[in-house]
Specification:
The complex is a heterodimer of chains A (225) and B (85).
Chain A lengths: L5 E5 L6 H11 L4 E5 L10 E4 L19 H11 L3 E5 L1 H8 L6 E3 L7 E9 L15 E8 L3 E3 L2 H9 L3 E5 L11 E5 L5 E4 L17 H12 L1
Parallel strand pairs in A: 1-2, 1-3, 3-4, 4-11
Antiparallel strand pairs in A: 5-8, 6-7, 6-9, 9-10, 10-11
Chain B lengths: L1 E10 L6 H12 L12 E8 L3 H16 L5 E9 L3
Classes of the chains: A alpha/beta (225), B alpha+beta (85).
Chain lengths: 225, 85
């Protein structure tokens, strides 16, 4: 079960990289490699994580500069090979800027940086990221972002809805003004996931919130199958 | 030739601009109730070397498309002028 090989990309300004490593290496016991953004070797990895933070200071737009980091070319190849990609918070922003996921994440509607624990509805249980959640689960997960309002054009939204690419929704309502209460989406294959909530910050049994634990268990389960 | 480019970047009309809305509300509170539709964008100024104005414009357009603007949520206008011409 502990054989999933995780890679965590570290950009200048990433600040959740070690939180993710604490879960994947420290709690799950999985081999975990931190990958500096200038590296290009992603060989031997099953899941590559783009962690939260403020890559390149969020200058210009969140994720806009990280998108051109040397590691991103390798990440696209990893995804094309069928590898798993997970973008959390700033990582989600980077995935949209890179075009690996549709739409964009813009300034919260109320202009506040929101640091809170919020209700998250799991919309699909058939994905490698969610299979360990019971049907119809509503979770409490931490969010911490100023630019998390998911937006896209109406055609893209319809595609996301029709293809079941909306994986997580805020419940009962998006605190940041996201269209259709979107908190996380995947690509059509389900192997690339981006979400604003932080499952890695709700996975340590010593911390009060633990609704992120099944998220990580789902990944292990999908590789054990 | 040296050119100076002025680039205006705006959120697409379909994308809510809460910063513009907040500024509009503030202007209204100051009594400027005639103000409507405040939208806040970015202004980028850069210099570049190019053989002619048309090429300079095309190059700046590429820069905008690749990095400076995100076409998913933003539109942009470019003005290119020769420097010292």
């Amino acid at each position: 079960m502990a054989g999933v090989r995780f890679g965590i990309v570290v950009f200048p300004g990433s600040n959740c990289d070690r939180d993710v490593a604490w879960v994947t290496r420290g709690l799950l016991g999985c081999p975990t490699r931190l990958i500096w953004h200038r590296e290009t070797d992603l060989s031997g990895l099953d899941v590559v994580v783009l962690p939260g933070g403020f890559s390149y200071g969020d200058y210009l737009r969140c994720g806009a500069i990280a998108r051109f980091a040397p590691v991103m070319g390798s990440l696209k190849e990893h995804a094309a090979r069928g590898g798993y990609v997970l973008g959390i918070c700033n990582g989600f922003q980077i995935l949209t800027e890179a075009g690996l996921l549709p739409g964009a994440l813009v300034r919260n509607a109320n202009l506040h940086f929101i640091c809170d624990r919020v209700g998250i509805c799991v919309e699909r249980q058939d994905l490698p990221w969610t299979s360990a959640y019971p049907q119809g689960s509503t979770l409490t997960l931490p969010i911490a972002h100023g630019e998390g309002r998911y937006t896209c054009d109406p055609d893209t939204l319809k595609q996301l809805q029709d293809r079941g690419q909306i994986v997580f929704r805020y419940a009962p309502v998006a605190p940041n003004g996201s269209v259709d209460n979107i908190a996380g989406i995947c690509d059509p294959s389900g192997r690339i996931l981006g979400l604003m909530p932080h499952p890695e910050r709700a996975a340590d049994p010593d911390l009060p919130g633990q609704d992120g634990i099944p998220f990580w268990q789902s990944i292990l389960r999908s590789f054990a199958a | 030739m040296q050119f100076q480019a002025q680039i205006q970047i705006h959120l697409r009309p379909s994308v809510l601009d809460p910063v513009g809305a907040a500024v509009q509300s503030s202007l209204h509170q100051l009594g400027h109730t005639q103000v409507q539709q405040v939208r806040i964008g970015k202004h980028i100024q850069l210099q570049l070397e190019a053989p002619d104005a048309e090429t300079a414009h095309r190059q700046v357009d590429e820069l905008c498309h690749q990095l400076l603007a995100n076409p998913v949520i933003e539109t942009y206008q470019i003005q290119v002028d020769p420097i010292g011409g």
